[in-house]
Structure formats: structure tokens, C-alpha cells
Specification:
Blueprint (H helix, E strand, L loop, with lengths): L1 H35 L2 H32 L3 H34 L10 H24 L2 H25 L8 H33 L10
């Protein structure tokens, strides 16, 4: 029975990595669609979100069965509960990538971002992509230095989120009403993407260190 349990826990870990890779691909492609007005790519991201939803359901079902059939305790139980929460965060990150793609599709053939904010959103796309890539590494290695890097990426996204809003109030801003709305929403999507990435990192930090606040990620 223990061999079966170990195999199931390994598959659970693999499922989370698969979800993280899907999220990484989704935010990269959504950002590209946003910055290049690629409506076909945007549509592909939107369609693929259903795959991530299916993966989350698989993880949830596996966790429930492990708890019901194996009655895990201590670290094993904490790992399963953390996996449930991580899968939920990853699913929400996928939804946020989908929202970015939907904004790109809605604005087509025009761009959703005014020229005044392009540099800001290029930087946001880069920071979100970096965070998503780091989550994959964190799930594979549980390296606390990677967890710390994710927190740093989120700090940058927070700063860029503030910069995007400040730009809307700057003298000389000439964006349309729709562009203003899109900037507000899109910057919020990227900022929340970073928040969920930090949530994942804190779950891993807790499993490694027992720290419930994730503060030991800053090493």
C-alpha cells in the first residue's frame, strides 16, 4: 500500500508541474497576442484554458482519493492540502492569462494598449513570464531561492501596476475611454497573476520550512 501511495503522490506532483507549464505557456502566448495584435494566438489561449480546468479537476480528485483511501498524516497530509491550494492558484493564473487574451481579441484589429503604456506592459509581460517559469522550477526542486525570486517578480509587477495607473493620470495622456479601461483591467490581471504566484511559493516554503507566512523565502 505504501508503494502505491508513494506512486500516487509522485503523480500528484507531476500533475502540478504540468499545470504550471500550461500556465507558463498561456501567459507567454497571451502577452504576445496582446503586444502584437495576434487574434489567432489570443483565441488559442482562450480555447486552451479548458485543458487547465480539466487538470485542476484531476488534481482535486486525486487529492480527495488520497485522503479518503490512505488517511495520510503529518507531512503527507500537508502536502496534499497544499497541492489542492496550489492547483487552485494555478487555475486562477490560467484564467488571468485568458483574460489578457480576451482583451487582445476584443480590441482586434487595433491594440488594447495605448502607445504611452507599451513599455510598461512589455515589462509586465516579462515579469509575469519569469514568475511562471520560476514556479515550474520551484515545484520541481522546492528551492527556496526560487521562491524568493518569485516574491521579487511580484514586487516588480506591483510597481508596474502602480506605474500603469499613474500613466493614466499623467499630463498629455491621450488614450481613448476603451484604452483607459483596458489599461486598468490588464494591469490588474498581471498584478493578480503575480499575487497567485507568490501564493504558490508560500505553500512550498511552508512545506519545506514549516513557515506559515512564507517569510523564509527571502534567503
Amino acid at each position: 500500500m505504501r508503494t502505491l501511495f508513494t506512486a500516487e503522490m509522485s503523480e500528484l506532483a507531476d500533475d502540478l508541474v504540468t499545470m504550471a507549464k500550461h500556465v507558463s505557456s498561456a501567459i507567454d502566448r497571451a502577452s504576445e497576442a496582446l503586444l502584437t495584435q495576434n487574434v489567432e494566438l489570443a483565441q488559442a489561449v482562450i480555447a486552451d484554458d479548458a485543458k487547465l480546468d480539466d487538470l485542476e479537476e484531476t488534481v482535486d480528485e486525486r487529492c480527495v482519493l488520497l485522503i479518503a483511501q490512505q488517511q495520510p498524516v503529518s507531512l503527507d497530509l500537508r502536502t496534499i492540502i497544499a497541492s489542492l491550494r496550489i492547483s487552485a492558484s494555478l487555475e486562477r493564473m490560467g484564467d488571468l492569462a485568458q483574460h489578457v487574451a480576451e482583451a487582445a481579441r476584443r480590441a482586434y484589429p487595433d491594440g488594447a494598449i495605448p502607445a504611452s503604456h507599451r513599455d510598461t506592459f512589455e515589462a509586465m509581460a516579462e515579469a509575469a513570464s519569469q514568475a511562471a517559469t520560476e514556479i515550474i522550477g520551484l515545484l520541481e526542486t522546492r528551492d527556496l531561492n526560487v521562491a524568493a525570486a518569485i516574491v521579487s517578480d511580484d514586487d516588480k509587477l506591483d510597481e508596474l501596476h502602480d506605474a500603469a495607473y499613474s500613466g493614466l493620470l499623467a499630463d498629455g495622456y491621450e488614450g481613448t475611454t476603451q484604452e483607459t479601461l483596458d489599461v486598468s483591467l490588464l494591469s490588474r490581471y498581471y498584478e493578480r497573476f503575480g499575487d497567485h504566484a507568490v501564493g504558490v511559493s508560500r505553500r512550498i516554503v511552508y512545506l519545506v520550512t514549516g513557515d506559515t507566512k512564507g517569510e523564509r523565502a527571502r534567503i
